[in-house]
Design goal:
Structural class: mainly alpha
Helix content: 55-70%
Low-confidence stretches: none
Radius of gyration: 16 Å
Number of strands: 0
Order of helices and strands: HHHH
Distance between the termini: 15 Å
Shape: elongated
Largest sheet: none
Mean pLDDT: 93
Strand content: under 5%
Length: about 90
């Protein structure tokens, strides 16, 4: 039934940007050369495109997809909880 549905919009640009920054900070080792390339990618013009370009050609690509999925699931769960809806209910 449609009256029981909840519309969840995609994250705003600021939140999506924060997800990329957290990934760089928390998931890429400091000694990995790609860390600086990713930092530069998100600090210039067109950060989303540049991040994608760098990450797609790296060994961290799948780690990025897994991290982003987990972050999006957390956002959805937090939103549902704010509506007093149990996110773990099926």
């Amino acid at each position: 039934r449609w009256e029981n549905c909840v519309r969840i919009d995609p994250p705003e640009l600021g939140e999506s940007f924060g997800i990329m920054e957290r990934f760089i900070r928390d998931c890429i080792p400091d000694d990995a050369g790609i860390k600086e390339r990713l930092r530069k990618a998100v600090s210039g013009r067109k950060p989303f495109r540049n991040f994608k370009y760098v990450i797609d050609g790296s060994e961290y690509r799948q780690k990025w997809f897994d991290f982003r999925q987990g972050q999006l699931e957390r956002l959805v769960a937090d939103y549902l909880n704010s509506l007093d809806i149990d996110a773990s209910a099926k």
